[in-house]
């Protein structure tokens, strides 16, 4: 579906975007599996879905909600849809919104963020989400023409400390300085944290790990149980 910025903003306002991703080598690392997870999230009330990789995006083209697509290439530096070529491939796969690294760091293909967005729009009718790591990133991304500002990279670029939960301070800072819709993303692990992000000024929240990554969710429960003091019942005859 092709969607304009105003319509997209209205659809996601106050809502939950669910990121459906699995890491290479994991049991769920399959496009059809991710598409099924996405459909389950939509059934639960997700207003949009975020998917990684062109195969996953193509597998979920039948969703009744907008798709935010990205392509991770590498795991360090600028790796979220890092080049114009990646951005065009994500758009070709059917994403309504192309998410890309929205930081001020050098991009692998030498283009600026503004140049990437402008060139993408010459060939594709899509919205652009800038995954930012700081207030300066968000201001620069808005000036570069991004339609949406995400706090996805807060705590991962060296400009801000990595908070245990969402960086609500950054959400509030961006809301006070920028006019584009804000998607709070990153370390939102509870419903209360999601609600707090909206209260801080986010237009919508994006949750991934806490909903769609069973390995991590399982590890949280295991860690909590392992941290309990021995009850004295284990091993008793």
UniProtKB/TrEMBL annotation:
Record key words, sorted: Carbohydrate metabolism, Isomerase
Reactions catalysed according to its record: an N-acyl-D-glucosamine 6-phosphate = an N-acyl-D-mannosamine 6-phosphate
Class of this enzyme: isomerase
Isomerase in keyword set: yes
CDD domains for this protein: NanE
Pathway assignment: Amino-sugar metabolism; N-acetylneuraminate degradation; D-fructose 6-phosphate from N-acetylneuraminate: step 3/5
EC number per UniProt: 5.1.3.9
Pfam families per record: NanE (PF04131)
Sequence similarity: Belongs to the NanE family.
Stated role: Converts N-acetylmannosamine-6-phosphate (ManNAc-6-P) to N-acetylglucosamine-6-phosphate (GlcNAc-6-P).
UniProt-recorded name of the protein: Putative N-acetylmannosamine-6-phosphate 2-epimerase
Encoding gene, per UniProt annotation: nanE
């Amino acid at each position: 579906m092709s969607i304009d910025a105003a319509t997209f903003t209205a659809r996601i306002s106050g809502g939950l975007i669910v990121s459906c991703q699995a890491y290479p080598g994991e049991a769920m690392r399959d496009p059809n599996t991710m598409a099924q997870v996405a459909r389950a999230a939509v059934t639960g009330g997700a207003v949009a879905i975020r998917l990684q990789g062109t195969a996953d995006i193509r597998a979920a083209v039948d969703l009744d909600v907008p798709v935010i697509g990205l392509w991770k290439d590498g795991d360090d530096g600028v790796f979220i849809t890092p080049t114009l070529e990646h951005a065009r491939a994500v758009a070709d796969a059917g994403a309504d919104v192309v998410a890309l690294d929205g930081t001020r760091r050098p991009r692998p293909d030498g283009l600026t963020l503004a140049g990437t967005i402008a060139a993408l729009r010459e060939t594709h009718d899509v919205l652009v989400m800038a995954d930012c790591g700081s207030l300066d990133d968000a201001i620069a991304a808005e000036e570069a023409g991004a339609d949406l500002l995400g706090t996805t990279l807060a705590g991962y670029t060296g400009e801000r400390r990595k908070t245990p939960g969402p960086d609500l301070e950054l959400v509030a800072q961006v809301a006070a300085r920028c006019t584009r819709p804000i998607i709070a993303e990153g370390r939102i692990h509870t419903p209360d944290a999601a609600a707090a992000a909206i209260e801080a000024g986010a237009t919508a929240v994006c949750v991934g790990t806490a909903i769609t990554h069973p390995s991590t969710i399982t590890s949280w429960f295991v860690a909590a149980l392992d941290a309990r003091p021995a009850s004295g019942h284990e091993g008793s005859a």
